[in-house]
């Protein structure tokens, strides 16, 4: 099992089949909060859909394509952070993340992203870590800014959120900038 310790209260742990029920419970409780920014949440995923998602994530982890981890704070699941894609050609890792609303504002996501950046640069030999965020998702944008990411571009109409097209802001961090930051 893959576990990335961040600090004594926080760890990133590869999602496994036994996490499906906890994910459904968390997503159900946070549905309206998360739906604002996540295009896959028209409805709360079923237990079977979560099991299928985790199985696919484990296959992608085994093949080196992606890494989907649960964010565990004080032992409980409070969100997900993932490398949605390791592009081995361009040496670019694209991160995605979401967090239960009751855990926001505590530095949890900033710490989780910092840990995932370190893994991408030093264990996976990536040259660039990228985060794509809906333009009006201020909290997610602040995570990237706090960590020193550069705002690279704005992509118009990048995502269809339930009939509402939103622009994405693309943030990038190079390994060189990370080393000197």
From TrEMBL:
Q: Which InterPro entries match?
A: Acyl_CoA_acyltransferase, GNAT_dom, Ribosomal_N-acetyltransferase
Record GO cellular component, one term: cytoplasm
Name the Gene Ontology molecular function terms of this record: protein N-terminal-serine acetyltransferase activity; protein-N-terminal-alanine acetyltransferase activity
**Pfam families assigned:** Acetyltransf_3 (PF13302)
All copies of domain N-acetyltransferase, residue ranges: 10-176
Tell me the domain of life: Bacteria
List the PANTHER family: RIBOSOMAL N-ACETYLTRANSFERASE YDAF-RELATED, RIBOSOMAL-PROTEIN-SERINE ACETYLTRANSFERASE
- Annotated protein name in UniProt: GNAT family N-acetyltransferase
Q: Which organism is it from?
A: Metalysinibacillus jejuensis
Taxonomic lineage of the native organism: Bacteria, Bacillati, Bacillota, Bacilli, Bacillales
């Amino acid at each position: 099992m893959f576990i990335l310790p961040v600090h004594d209260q926080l760890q990133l742990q590869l999602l496994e089949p036994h996490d499906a029920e906890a994910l459904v419970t968390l997503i159900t409780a946070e549905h309206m909060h998360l739906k604002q920014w996540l295009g896959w949440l028209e409805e709360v995923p079923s237990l079977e859909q979560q099991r299928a998602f985790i199985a696919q994530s484990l296959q992608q982890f085994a093949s080196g394509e992606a890494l989907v981890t649960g964010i565990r704070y004080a032992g409980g699941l409070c969100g997900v952070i993932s490398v949605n894609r390791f592009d081995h050609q361009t040496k670019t890792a694209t991160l995605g993340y979401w967090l239960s609303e009751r855990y926001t504002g505590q530095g949890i996501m900033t710490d989780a992203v910092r840990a995932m950046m370190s893994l991408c640069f030093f264990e996976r030999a990536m040259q660039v870590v990228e985060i794509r965020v809906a333009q009006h998702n201020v909290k997610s944008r602040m995570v990237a800014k706090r960590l020193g990411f550069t705002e690279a571009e704005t992509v118009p109409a990048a995502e269809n959120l339930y009939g509402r097209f939103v622009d994405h802001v693309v943030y990038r961090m190079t390994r060189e900038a990370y080393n000197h930051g």
